[in-house]
């Protein structure tokens, strides 16, 4: 089950004030429209830590510094086809050792997701030359010539 939104600080203060006035969980729940388990968690935190601020959460500290992260984003913005292995080598040159999946996660959090580009028809040198010669050949043709032309283009654009 996904976590719900965080309760605002003002609401947490109200919960503590009402609780200190002597009301129980049920009364506070009806008055503020919050779940009893949420109220219990807020009150328990107040009793244990004496604060309503968000406490630091557990977890391993990030290896990628904000500076290295900016460098990654800049590099990917400049060269969109850069692979995560190449970015890993770039960070290794700055003495930051991380796995390529961490790099992909960090870029994803910044809105830079790896995608496969759409397939587009390739125009070879021969096709470009043929189009250009056709355009030059019919440059001075009158308007009625173009109105009577039947266009049957076979390219898949």
TrEMBL record:
Protein name: Transposase Tc1-like domain-containing protein
Recorded GO MF terms: DNA binding
Stretches of the chain forming a coiled coil according to its record: none
SUPFAM superfamilies: Homeodomain-like (SSF46689)
Location of the Sleeping Beauty transposase HTH domain: 1-51
Transposase Tc1-like domain: residues covered: 69-140
InterPro entries reported in the protein's UniProt record: Homeodomain-like_sf, HTH_SB, RNaseH_sf, Transposase_5, Transposase_Tc1-like, WH-like_DNA-bd_sf
One GO term of the biological process aspect: DNA integration
Gene source species: Cyprinus carpio carpio
């Amino acid at each position: 089950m996904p976590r719900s939104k965080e309760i605002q600080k003002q609401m947490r203060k109200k919960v503590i004030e009402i609780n200190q006035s002597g009301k129980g969980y049920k009364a506070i729940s009806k008055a503020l429209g919050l779940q009893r388990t949420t109220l219990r968690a807020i009150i328990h935190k107040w009793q244990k830590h004496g604060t309503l601020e968000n406490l630091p959460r557990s977890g391993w500290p990030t290896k990628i510094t904000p500076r290295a992260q900016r460098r990654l984003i800049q590099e990917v913005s400049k060269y969109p086809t850069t692979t995560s292995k190449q970015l890993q080598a770039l960070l290794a040159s700055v003495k930051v050792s991380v796995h390529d999946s961490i790099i992909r996660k960090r870029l994803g959090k910044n809105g830079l997701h790896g995608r496969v580009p759409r397939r587009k028809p390739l125009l070879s040198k021969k096709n470009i030359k043929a189009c250009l010669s056709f355009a030059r050949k019919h440059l001075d043709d009158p308007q009625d010539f173009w109105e009577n032309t039947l266009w049957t283009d076979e390219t898949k654009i």
